[in-house]
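Next up, sample data:
>
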Amino acid sequence: MTDEDVAPEQGELAITRTGDRLRLAREAAGLSLADVATRTRITQRHLAAIEKSDFSELPGRTYVTGFARAYARAVDLPEAEIGAAVRQELEDDEYGSRPLYEAYEPTDPARLPTARLTWTLVIVTLLLASAYGVWRFLSVEPDEALIAAQNRAADESEAPQSDAATTPATKAGAAAVAANAPVVLTGLSEVWIGFDDATGKTENWRTLDAGETYQVPPAYIEQFTLRTSIPQALRVTVGGRDIGSIGPADTLVKGVSLKPADLVARTEGGAAIPAGPRPKG
């Protein structure tokens, strides 16, 4: 057997990452990254990171698998298989980053710490941890969305109103919104959004750049709910009316109803309402 006979096999063995497999499938289909970005609504920068298996470049580990599955569909690869492979790579990377454990075998019993010293160290550690927790509690700045919600609640509590008129007025305000009022999503910074069906499965997703707007199609309003992991980077308006934040900052928010009346009711009710079908289990 010559070296020329062995070379192709070595080339094949060099392709060990899921990103390589996706890239080769794209090139075999004659597609550019721009073509795949158009099909998936995922930015070219994120697609390039997937091809390099550099998942740290993506907006959040929660969506790495979803992006990879969308890429797989765009190049006719089995999305379930690609998703499983990416999850395994994420687990391998996380395991590989852990420090190696080195066993310690004492040779001189006299050098071992006494029980009294051990308990003293434990108590000191607990005291330091408690002190750090108190310091964090006193020094952390409150979330802007939470402050805004508290201010709205304070304004409403100070306004004179009768008990009999409070709930009907809120319901009337939500009902007054036109059922076909346009729902527009605007990126305050780069933000990933997804649309879930009645079972909670994300059927479509896209990335909004800072300042980019997206008017939700009427079919999406009726059939899907909204999800995002960066709610503070997303502005939602109904007929030009800003409904405020849809969730705490840097928190996965899902199952948000896109119907105009439900979105307005989230603001007028002072708290998030049940927002549509959620996945079971």
Q: What stands out?
A: The mean pLDDT is 75. Residues 115-139 form the longest helix (25 residues). Strands lie at 183-187, 191-196, 202-208, 213-215, 225-228, 234-238, 241-242, 253-257. Residues 171 and 265 are 7 Å apart (CA to CA).
